[in-house]
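seq:
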Amino acid sequence: MPESTDETSGASEPNNANLGENTEDKDTPETEPEHPEEVTGGDPAEPAESDAVENGPLTNLNDEETDRLMDQYIHYGEVAIETANQRVQMNRFFGLILTSILAGLFALARGNLTTTSAAIVLFASGFGSLICYFWYQSLQSYRRLNKARYAILNQIESALPVRMYLDEWRYLKREKPDPEIVEPRPDEDPDHRSHTIVEQWFVRLLAAGYLTVGGYAGGFILTPLLTGAGYSLPSPTTVGLIIGAIVMIGSIGLFWIRS
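struct:
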């Protein structure tokens, strides 16, 4: 009889996991492959979902080892918080610099541009787009780092009475099984959206702005060249607006598809 009970419980755990996966698949856009883990509680698809540690270094700890584990858990949690603070400071720095430069470029690009000023705007917009790319990659690096850290924290919590980070994730995402220490989140509450998604879309929109103003400036460089080659074109302002609009729509569409 005990063997059949173990088999039944073992079969029920995959069902719960599958149910959680199906629930995640229905959420958008946070549960897409790029953002499955973006929440304070880490990735719910990690092996830390199990309710008990059956084998490994966290099995059968004595009191002294449990105390040491708690100290490590607290310290590691503080490190994760410190990393989040560094991420906020990075966002403030890049956000302030890039938005200020973009505002200056839009102010400079108003009206007609000379070939020299158009080249300056085009170069600055390309440089700003490159900085946006590095900023985006830094966000991805922090995302992967947080995923690893909270996966470890979730595994340590499996040896503790309460799994707070995992319950936080389950509450926010309405994930099955329901949180253990709080009631499930009401269905009428708005769906949770990760802060990382907001960060990434802010960077994408900034990059689209730089590409747009660069395309506008490119119209003032391209028009004289094509006109000198015998082509009939509208005014440089019109050409710049057309190129800028095409670049803006294309970049936002590309970012939307990739997200």
